[in-house]
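Bit of a strange request maybe. I'm writing a small parser for structure token strings and I need a real example to test against, not something I typed by hand. Could someone generate the tokens for this chain?
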Amino acid sequence: MSFTSIRQAIIEDADNAAMRDLGYLPLYAAGPRARVAIVGQAPGRKAQESGLAWNDASGAKLFDWLGVTEEQFRDPDLFALLPMDFYFPGKGVAGDLPPRKGFAERWHPPLLELMPDIEVTVLIGGYAQSHYLAGRARRNLTETVHAFRDHLPDVIPLVHPSPLNFRWQSRNPWFLTDVIPVLRERVGAAIA
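Reply from user aminoacidic:
Good idea to test on real output. This should exercise your parser:
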């Protein structure tokens, strides 16, 4: 399979018919020379409608945490952006709905097979961590992120960079002092 054929298969998949009807395209980025994979939850409404992942305050914070410019982040020769679902899942009672089950299991492997140079995978949030750290994640997201060294050098779990997580960050100052410098160092080395 090629990047083009995988993208077309995602668009044509019957499970994505409702997204097609809304005019949505799958929102991810992947290139054969990508060095860092960013695995998040799913696009938000704004990202899906604009067709640009991480184009909000969360994205700006993520660029800062990674120590990269937006231009670097959007370069598919450097970064692959692979959310757990490539489509906005809709609104729920308490925020966006979770990514659809089975989506990442179906579409991530063929894409990752085409990206042999990935050196670092950044897992943002509980859905990505539960999937990629199956059996190795801790009891909850905070404990998994705090134990980030358990997954080095190739995987780094993070909390979501949402501005709404300011309380979590204030209760967990080790995140900025311990995790972020290692994240920047690993990402910087991978894309150098």
